[in-house]
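Async update (no meeting this week)

Hi team, since we skipped the sync, here's where things stand on the single-chain job. The sequence we agreed to prioritize is pasted below, unchanged from the tracker. I ran it this morning and attached the output directly underneath so nobody has to dig for it. Comments welcome in thread, and please keep replies under the output.
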Amino acid sequence: MTPNPFRGVVFHWLGGLASGSFYVPYKGVKKWSWEVYWLVGGFFSWIIAPWVLAFINTKDLAQVISAAPMSSLCWAYFWGAMWGLGGLTFGLTMRYLGMSLGMGIALGYCAAFGTLVPPIFHGDFVSKVLCTTSGQVILIGVLVCLLGIAVAGMAGMSKEREMTEEQKRATIKEFNFAKGILVATFSGVMSASFAYGLDAASPIAEISRAHGTEGLWTGLPKLCVVLLGGFTSNFIWCVLLNLKKKTGYQYFKSEIRSEHLEQAPPPRTTADDAGAGGVVQVLAVVSRARAVERAPMLNNYFFSALAGTTWYMQFFFYTMGETQMGNYKFSSWTLHMASIIIFSSLWGIALREWKGCSGFTKTLLAMGLFMLVFSTVIVGFGNYLAVK
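Output:
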């Protein structure tokens, strides 16, 4: 199969759309604790979707993975587990900073580390990147991408300065800039491990190709191993939170215990309205009503499954795009990060996270998005020069 970089760019855009959109269905989950809906969605992200789609689209999946070198399997699993630590804190980033600012900062770190470390590790950075015209063009695209991420981050910080606490919490209920920055930094650096895991799993793709899998799908078996590592770290963390907060029952029972209900002020009443005894009766009724509050189990499982499957589709398309980039597969990570930020920012606009911002802030955001789109075109052209 002859590489087609511009087709690869389209695949990466589709992956970015999936990644930038996956958190939206979680907004339909009601009354579940974060660790509950994150793990339910994760089963679809890291176990169900990868294995089902790889089984459908590739040949001899089990034999391919069993024939892979043990070192490749172990490193792919290890880096997947390290990515998992970044992935679970990525969810916290969304909670504290929102989709636009959270993704912009976290993915800035992720883009830099995930793009540049693999070719440096393999010793190809000088020979394939710095010393070739196509490599230099791709590097320019990477730098434009990072600059675009920085501008988008500046827009986010400008938004944070302009909005009141009430405005921030109206769109992002748990907004916390200081805590969010720390979490986003850790998440971004650790999330780059996914790129290392895919790189380590390259022999698996070659074995799949040897078994007759079409080139476009050879990356899918790699995801089964890397995401198994990600599932492990996320599973352990969520179960620990279930035990600590005693929320494990929410997987099976719709009735939500009073200590896990969102705190809300009691209805306003006075002694003049009902007398002291009336106040007690009102509070007793409220207490009983809250004690039997139920979670919409079917809806929660549906939206969590939808979010998890949507999340996986980013790497479904990523591996397809990677097969089209020729000798410069490392550039796929830049395309992926840029596409995610583009679509997550558009979602942030649609969800009115930028409501109330000044024209200057909105101009910064528009400039950042333009630079990110332009960077994907530059990277695509660089890859085109390499396969021309």
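Quick observations from my side:
Confidence is low (pLDDT under 50) at residues 263-275.
The chain has one domain: 5-253+294-387.
Reply here if anything looks off.
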